[in-house]
Design goal:
Blueprint: H1 3-21, H2 24-44, H3 48-57, H4 68-74, H5 81-85, H6 91-101, H7 108-115, H8 126-137, H9 146-155, H10 157-174, H11 181-192
Bound molecules: fe (ii) ion (2 copies).
EC number: 3.6.1.41
Enzyme class: hydrolase
Catalytic activity: P(1),P(4)-bis(5'-adenosyl) tetraphosphate + H2O = 2 ADP + 2 H(+)
Length: about 200
């Protein structure tokens, strides 16, 4: 079997399994994120297959009724105080583990992109940047500032990340929710560096 055929078959299997695994709306969001990530990968000349697989699986830990704290404890993951208040913040880290164990993903770059997709990180790879941005700009996203983030994501990934993290911070402040240190670090890093 040729490599391209094998990749397509593997992806088909992943999608079939994921469709059963995730709630319908979460699966549909994942497909939209995949399309957005592939579009960004084409524009920025990043491996489209890696982008596609990382994006499809980015929310694989947001399945029905998951108790994220319990799952994290079972796996022996350290839980930060903010994650106790907002367990949702655990899903990227759990997602990377589930992608590896349940979906058989071995590629470390893909797993890292899943792990960083929510709050970002300093020194992200191009793949990590586009999965983060695709998640925050897929067509159904409609937070204040999304149009600007979306436009910037086509031309300047770092500027789009600054804009995206800034919007997230404003939203969290407005809703009186705790702010993850990582969101602040991500914004500050890309605001002051080219990297
Ligand atoms: Fe997510
Ligand atoms: Fe998502």
């Amino acid at each position: 079997m040729k490599l391209k055929e094998k990749i397509l078959m593997d992806k088909h299997k992943i999608k079939t399994l994921l469709k059963k695994w995730l709630p319908k709306d979460r699966f549909e969001h994942s497909i939209r994120v995949e399309k957005t990530a592939v579009k960004l990968a084409k524009i920025h000349k990043i491996d489209e297959e890696d982008a596609s697989i990382a994006a499809i699986l980015h929310d694989c830990a947001r399945y029905n009724d998951i108790n994220l704290i319990q799952e994290a404890e079972k796996l022996g993951l350290p839980i930060k105080p903010i994650e106790k208040v907002q367990p949702k913040l655990l899903h990227p880290r759990l997602g990377a583990i589930i992608a590896q164990r349940k979906f058989g993903i071995k590629n470390k770059n893909i797993l890292a992109a899943i792990k960083k997709h929510t709050v970002g990180s300093i020194k992200m790879t191009p793949l990590e940047k586009i999965v983060y941005l695709a998640d925050h700009t897929e067509p159904a996203r409609d937070y204040k500032g999304v149009t600007k983030v979306r436009k910037l994501s086509f031309i300047d990934l770092n500027a789009a990340i600054v804009e995206c993290a800034s919007s997230m911070l404003q939203d969290l402040i407005q809703r009186k929710l705790p702010i993850s240190e990582e969101t602040l670090k991500t914004r500050n890093y890309y605001l002051t560096k080219d990297g």
